């Protein structure tokens, strides 16, 4: 029984659907006939009623007619005034078709039909009307594209279409976007004051750039000068001397026609030269017109004779300025709307300030993680062994070039990065061990010679890198999953590469702590650090520990080079860009202390980013101020933030 009822229901729908479609078609034809004259004319000034009638009908056929009209494919038969579409045949005549059903209506000569050619203004109105249909399209991508198009070039005509498309939206995320865009357009185009204020207030705290772009025009002002009280929505009464200079005040009076123009020095000279008579100007000999005072006197004489505009003295200007009042007047006439916009913008500015502080903190931590990675190896060699290794930056450079070479062998960027990290460690570890065995071991407790020797090695390694890889920067490409940035809002964002480096720094911090606290090597390193002689008497080989420690510090520098190379250019000078910051990080944090190195990196990274935020156009200033700050800091804290404890520290 149920099956039979369902079959009857389907048969009923199939039977009535042609009638329904025919009814909608007749409705569209009736609209076209009613507005035939203004459609044929297609003038922006008169065509809106026809477009609105088609749009508000809501019929799919209306969408097709509007698209046909917008695409200049709408024609009209001259005799019957019927709107059709047309296609030229081989004989030069035209086959015509029903504008809605596309059924053929015959063949006519070219002179029997006229093409409807809407201008750009009419096409804009048609496009706005079509938005309503696009916003309710069955394809979600077309609805999303319509929202993007409205957001890019919104106008008042989009508002009713957008409101009509919200209720039937089935996708929750897209519905939220529609609601937000509707409120945004309401702040700009809503004619009802209460609804407009409600829309403005709904954005309080919103960090979107688009809402700030919508609210700022509401608060735009014009500057006026009046004799008494100003009319309109007053933003601020201006005080001469505080809010505007006397020169600006008088220029405003001139622009408003409230004061005579003050002739410039060039205008005075031209006027004098045009009024020379018998070697005199206004009774003053030309030879005496060598000073401004003399020229002004002669000009005043000409003004008394009515030959030139009057000269306005400074005293007269001041008197005129004092007799007027000056205001900034909102372009928006309704005080309630400007008050709501001001309150909303104030709330936005508070949130922007908080977000900027968070963003600055993230930038500081990001830079600190880079400095920490670069300095952690130096903290081991310099802090534990007391070796001033000026070639530490070149180990960073070697690590970056190792990553580049691995990428040439393994084209998969993710796999190459996984291989490059241990490879860079092994290469720089071996280089560090070789350097310690061949050079450093002979120079212990001789800091000046060590500094000079490692500086020479630094120069040699840079030149070797130039000979092998050339002077041009080499690409160290990050995997695709590290592209882009984590965006929290329109203010806070941080690149995925910086996040990865931050995580890598944390991993190395934990790894270093594990080695130093939980392994025999760490125990022996700490023993040698605190008292080498006592450690030697306990069976520890300081010479071996120094070699492994130097190699470990160099290996970590190589890994830091791979990380830094993902966002910095890989050249032979890469290491020199970080060696100074690495030493400063170790010294400020406290020599030989991993927690001190971490604290120093956070302090220096945060300070540098703060200075760059205050003076973003001059990054060199940030470096200069940072060095000055460190010099002052060391005067008060010579052992760093966290001083080393033990016999080696002299405690």
If strands are numbered along the chain, what order do they take across the biggest sheet?
4-3-2-1-5
Q: Count all strands and give the number.
A: 12
Overall radius of gyration: 40 Å
Uncertain segments of ≥5 residues (pLDDT<50)?
A: 1-21, 646-651
Percentage of residues in strands: 5-15%
- The pLDDT mean sits at 82
* SS-based class: alpha+beta
What can be said about the biggest beta sheet? 5 strands, antiparallel
Distance between the termini: 99 Å
What's the number of helices?
A: 25
Global morphology: extended
| Helix content percent band | 55-70%
Number of separate domains: 4
Explain how this protein is built.
- There is one protein chain.
- By secondary structure, this protein is an alpha+beta fold.
- The protein folds into four domains: 2-123, no CATH class; 136-218, no CATH class; 221-330, no CATH class; 352-572, no CATH class.
- Helix content is 63%, strand content 8%.
- It is built from 25 helices and twelve strands.
- A five-stranded antiparallel β-sheet has the order 4-3-2-1-5, with no helix packed on it.
- β11 (485-487) and β12 (493-495) form a beta hairpin.
- α15 (335-385) packs parallel to α19 (496-518), α15 (335-385) packs antiparallel against α22 and α23 packs across α24.
- It is extended and about 115 Å long.
- It starts with a helix and ends in a 15-residue tail after the last helix.
- Mean pLDDT is 82; it is low at 1-21 and 646-651.
